[in-house]
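stage 2 :: seqdesign
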């Protein structure tokens, strides 16, 4: 730890605990330095920047009870602990929590020196109707986040259609100009489409990194292996989203969980999934949407340092995956891109209830959860307009799946 880093850490703790003595602040700074040193870090390509392998995702922040509002106080506590543990990469987006995620990070991170953390944000090209909208959204994001620049900036959720719109509005060219002006340090994109489309996007422009959905379930199911290999061959570093597939891989079926617990009784399901993604050498950061402090604490233990999977552990994970896939229902990650539904159907909640039912076979609980939803928000209220399916990153035929659920006999029995 050099003098500059030492002073950064000391200033951070002084801001967090202004009433502590200087001796206490120095002691805390020394402890924080040790924690930061334990966090696995990897280089972002040839930039010279070292990212923490664990990134703090802003899509599933804690909320106030019974409210859509983010619990900013709890986020502030979690961010302080993340800094202490060496996790200083924060990822947000224009629509996360209805715009509240950007504002929350803007409020919380202003307590820290700007060069002590990495902030990532994204351009939602589908929300732009013109090139002027692209500029307006970008400037609004800077304002919401209370920053003068983004360390990492992405064209958000690219697929074939969004890439065409991005080219029509010259989004890459605009963002490249922002990079020249110092408002963006590293330019990339996040992706939800086929490897063939990814090959096209990766080849057409110069990218500093790319963000893809990658986990041991999607390695083959979602063709993540092919995506990873395309980017690695192109020399593009990979940031991972959905390492737990929306929490599904943290809450495996009893059969799959038993396989993992038999091999490592003290290891959580989530830690297996994180270690899987972290074992890939071209992965430079793995995002985790941490809703509770215990999520953060467990993740810090997993990544400080991250221990790659051994060959026997990979074989164990294959067995667990085989057990889990037998009961897989709807591959929803609860990203909520489908929301709000034009007629008010609670799409992610319904799929979550249904998937849990398929995993546990607890019909009564499923029926009670489903019937706890207002009548107008249940699966049978779907009018099959298709708006949800058009924006679903998982390419789920949502109206069809809702129709299947609505017809389930278990929902009609008493």
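stage 2 :: out
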């Amino acid at each position: 730890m050099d003098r500059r880093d030492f002073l950064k850490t000391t200033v951070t703790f002084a801001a967090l605990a202004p009433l502590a003595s200087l001796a206490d602040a120095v002691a805390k700074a020394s402890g924080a330095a040790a924690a930061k040193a334990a966090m696995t870090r990897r280089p972002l390509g040839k930039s010279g920047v070292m990212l923490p392998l664990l990134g703090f995702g802003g899509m599933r922040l804690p909320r106030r009870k019974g409210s859509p509002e983010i619990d900013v106080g709890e986020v502030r506590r979690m961010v302080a602990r993340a800094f202490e543990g060496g996790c200083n990469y924060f990822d947000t987006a224009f629509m996360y929590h209805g715009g509240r995620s950007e504002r929350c990070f803007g409020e919380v991170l202003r307590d820290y020196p700007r060069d002590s953390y990495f902030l990532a944000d994204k351009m939602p090209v589908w929300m732009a109707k013109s090139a002027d909208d692209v500029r307006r959204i970008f400037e609004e994001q800077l304002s919401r986040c209370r920053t003068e620049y983004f360390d990492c900036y992405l064209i958000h959720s690219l697929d074939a259609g969004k890439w065409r719109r991005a080219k029509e509005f010259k989004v890459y060219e605009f963002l490249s100009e922002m990079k020249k002006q110092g408002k963006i340090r590293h330019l990339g994109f996040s992706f939800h489409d086929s490897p063939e489309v990814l090959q096209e996007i990766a080849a057409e422009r110069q990218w500093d990194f790319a963000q893809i959905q990658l986990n041991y379930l999607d390695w083959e199911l979602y063709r993540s292996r092919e995506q990873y290999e395309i980017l690695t061959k192109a020399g593009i570093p990979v940031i991972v989203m959905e390492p737990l597939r929306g929490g599904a891989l943290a809450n495996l079926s009893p059969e799959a969980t038993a396989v993992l617990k038999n091999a490592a009784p003290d290891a959580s399901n989530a830690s297996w999934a994180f270690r899987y993604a972290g074992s890939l050498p071209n992965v430079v950061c793995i995002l985790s949407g941490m809703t509770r402090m215990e999520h953060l604490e467990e993740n810090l233990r997993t990544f400080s340092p991250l221990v790659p999977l051994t060959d026997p552990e990979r074989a164990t994970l294959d067995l667990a995956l085989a057990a889990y896939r037998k009961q897989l229902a709807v591959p929803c990650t609860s990203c909520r891109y489908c929301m709000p539904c034009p007629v008010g159907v609670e799409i992610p909640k319904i799929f979550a209830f249904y998937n849990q039912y398929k995993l546990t076979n607890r019909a009564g609980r499923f029926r009670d959860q489903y019937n706890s939803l207002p009548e107008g928000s249940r699966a049978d209220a779907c009018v099959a307009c298709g708006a949800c399916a058009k924006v679903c990153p998982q390419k789920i035929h949502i109206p069809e799946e809702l129709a299947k659920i609505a017809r389930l006999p278990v929902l009609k029995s008493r």
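stage 3 :: structure notes
- Residues 1-20 have pLDDT under 50 and may be disordered.
- The beta strands are 41-43, 50-52, 54-57, 89-91, 118-123, 150-158, 184-191, 209-213, 238-241, 283-288.
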